[in-house]
# Entry
Amino acid sequence: MRQRSRPRTTAGAAPGFTLIEAALATVIVGVGILAMVDAQQAFIKTNTWSSHAASGTFLANEIREMTRNLPKHDPVVGLSLDDDGGGGSVLSGWGPNAAEFGLVDFDDLDDFDGITFSYVGTNGFDDGDLPGPINAFGEVVPEIDVSGSIVMDGGVEAPMFGWRQTVVVEKVDPFDTSVVLADDYVEPAAGDFEGRDVDEFPVRMTVIVTYQRAGALEAEEVARVTWIVP
# Structure
């Protein structure tokens, strides 16, 4: 009986990947890794912005909560137009009054106009900056590190780095609150209308929260909260 011959094989040869198959596998794995890295970076960026948006909204609403029960104008001296001695008039009572030296003395809404509560704030009104950012109790909000501990600076709590709360107070038209009026505007009488005095207009409160990260040249607006006080 004739035996069937077996095909010859090269000694020591074993099945494996060709150069083209290895290159394709490298490309596929590389594309997958790049996609994962890109997705991770996008997630980190989105998560960071969400965290900043939440912090910004919190800081804006803290100012709103702190001022919600304050009158529009000073409860003692009010808001008035006084004779300037030259036939004209000058507005009195808008902004911090002579006897008000800090946040604890603010007793009306217009005291806050143009004030910024900042991590680089000072104790005076000259530059419009006061220490901050602050919470609804007027306390400076401290910086918290990644471990959840309050950051200390020279034995005192360091404020939230890079954050600012800027307050803008504007007199607005009672029938169209998008129209801003001058602080000393008075509506004259007309017909049966008796007129509207300088302190009888609604005000629009706006809190703008910005954040400037370390090394950044400019601050970026994160949140803005606006409300009308009739």
